[in-house]
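Input chain follows. Return structure tokens only.
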Amino acid sequence: KRHGLGKVFSCRALKIVIDYFNKLGHTNVKCVVPESRKSTKMSDRPTMNPEILEELERHDEIIFTPDMIYDDDILIQMAAKTNAVIISNDKFRDFSKYKDPNVVAYLKDNK
């Protein structure tokens, strides 16, 4: 079942993905989400079921990024440092802006 369909931000979808990878045996699954998603009144896509974000936060399965910081930056830098896998529908086409050779190498090796 597809969640959100590009019209809403589905917190339930995040939970489904985290549960899926945990069931596969992964032990450190995290979602990186802008802090503004805690609000249900986002103008671009309203947040559905924000109480799920609170649950994920209690279980240390979500990382909130400050609203003024590009969340992709935090996600990519964290993944490069920990050699993590990124699951995203983002193509990260703007990765050429990164100057850190470790981040650039990570992105090239993990397309």
